[in-house]
Design goal:
The chain has eight helices and four strands. The protein has helices spanning 5-16, 23-31, 35-42, 44-58, 76-85, 95-103, 116-134, 146-160, and strands spanning 19-22, 64-67, 89-92, 137-140. The strands form two sheets. Strands 1-2 form a two-stranded parallel sheet. Strands 3-4 form a two-stranded parallel sheet.
C-alpha cells in the first residue's frame, strides 16, 4: 500500500511494450462498484474472493505487467497464481514514506479506523514476511521517482530472466 504499484506498473508496461493490468481495476469493473463500496457492503472476505477470481483470469496471459492490491498475497493460492503469471516484484519503501503516501488517499478502506497509523503499521508488520517470501526480488522506492523505479524493475527483471547455465550461474 503506497509503494506506487499502479503508477510504476504503467511505466513498466509502456517501456516494455506490454499491457498493463490492475487487479483492483478488474474487481471494480466486474463488481460495478468501488472498492470502498465493496468493503462497506460485503466486507473484506468478499473483496478478497473477487480479487482471487480476477487473478485467476490472468493465468496463461503473457506480455502483461500486473499491479495488485497489497493484500493479494495473503492467500497461498494467489501467491502461486502470481508466479504462474510471471515473476513477482515487491515494491517497498520506508514505512514513514508509505504511510505519508497512503494518507493522501481517502479511498483506503482498511485504513478507515480510529487510528489509521496504528492500523497501517500493524498491516505492514503482518505482511512484510509474506511479501519477502512471495517476491522474486525487491525494489526500494523510498527516494526514487516512478520512472527510476520502473527502470530498476526492468533491469532486475533482465537479470532475473537470464537463463541459468548447468552450473547454476547465469551467463
Amino acid at each position: 500500500m503506497g509503494c506506487g504499484k499502479s503508477s510504476v506498473g504503467r511505466r513498466i508496461a509502456a517501456l516494455a511494450g506490454h499491457r498493463f493490468v490492475d487487479t483492483d481495476e478488474m474487481v471494480v469493473s466486474h463488481a460495478g462498484r468501488s472498492i470502498t463500496e465493496i468493503f462497506a457492503e460485503h466486507g473484506e472476505e468478499y473483496f478478497r474472493n473477487l480479487e482471487t477470481a480476477a487473478l485467476r483470469e490472468l493465468i496463461g496471459t503473457s506480455q502483461v505487467v500486473l499491479a495488485t492490491g497489497g493484500g493479494i498475497v495473503l492467500r497461498e493460492e494467489n501467491r502461486a497464481a502470481l508466479h504462474e503469471i510471471g515473476y513477482v516484484v515487491w515494491l517497498d519503501a520506508a514505512p514513514e514514506v508509505l504511510f505519508e503516501r497512503v494518507s493522501r488517499n481517502r479511498k483506503r478502506p482498511l485504513l478507515h479506523t480510529a487510528d489509521p497509523r496504528a492500523t497501517f503499521d500493524s498491516l505492514l508488520a503482518s505482511r512484510t514476511h509474506i511479501y519477502e517470501a512471495a517476491a522474486d526480488f525487491r525494489i526500494d522506492s523510498t527516494m526514487a521517482s516512478h520512472d527510476d523505479v520502473a527502470r530498476a524493475v526492468l533491469e532486475q527483471a533482465q537479470r532475473f530472466c537470464v537463463p541459468q547455465q548447468e552450473d547454476g550461474f547465469g551467463s
